[in-house]
Write a structure and sequence with these properties.
Metal-sulfur cluster assembly factor, three-stranded mixed sheet, about 110 residues, Fe-S_Maturation_MIP18, globular, MIP18-like, 4 helices, alpha+beta, about 30% helix, FSCA_dom_sf
Length: about 110
């Protein structure tokens, strides 16, 4: 995510840091699965994200957790998830924290 985030977008990102992948035990932001957050002036939020693999068995669980976190953020009225496969997720997208926690060499 290269763009400057608005206060509402920063609040959504903070909320997403509390969404923990149940299989890996690390939040989605540190895993590098969140590619972008856009919030318009009416509080409509679009979360652009990917998954570690196509056909992820817990995708429905993750979507529900994301929507709950985002809609619990003040000023946010709606949440849509834009699932993308490009660029493809790789362990290089993980933060240093996530790599250390998961024992990934870097």
């Amino acid at each position: 995510m290269d763009k400057q985030l608005s206060a509402n977008e920063q609040a959504v990102m903070t909320a997403l840091k509390k969404v923990i992948d149940p299989e890996l035990g690390i939040d989605l932001v540190n895993l590098g699965l969140i590619y972008g957050v856009d919030v318009d002036d009416d509080g409509n939020c679009i979360v652009t994200m990917t998954l570690t693999t196509m056909g992820c068995p817990i995708s429905d669980v993750l979507y529900a957790m994301i929507k709950k976190a985002v809609l619990g953020t003040p000023q946010i009225e709606t949440c849509k998830i834009n699932l993308v496969w490009e660029p493809a997720w790789t362990p290089d997208k993980m933060s240093r924290f996530a790599r250390i926690a998961l024992g990934v060499r870097f």
